[in-house]
Design a protein that fits this description.
Blueprint (H helix, E strand, L loop, with lengths): L4 H6 L4 H9 L3 H8 L6 H10 L6 H4 L14 H5 L1
């Protein structure tokens, strides 16, 4: 089931601070995204990976991807 980012973060181990560390973004930038700003394609894919697809990049960037399966998540990207 798809969860929005704010809801997903409520259950993230370590909360927002740990998510920001894992995604290598500031808490301010995370707040902007939760508030509706679009993340970069790279960050949208990172959120997709960190949430194991529960917050799909296609939901964050529908201008780039229509469905979660459309998001390119190659092995090289998963390691970064």
């Amino acid at each position: 089931m798809q969860a929005d980012l704010k809801t997903f973060l409520e259950g993230y181990p370590g909360g927002r601070p740990q998510f920001c560390k894992d995604a290598t973004i500031s808490e301010g930038r995370l707040s902007q995204i939760i508030g509706g700003e679009r993340p970069s394609p790279k960050l949208a894919k990172a959120i997709h990976r960190l949430s194991q697809g529960r917050v799909p990049a296609s939901a964050l960037r529908p201008d780039l991807w229509r469905e979660p399966d459309d998001v390119p998540l190659g092995e090289a990207e998963q390691a970064s």
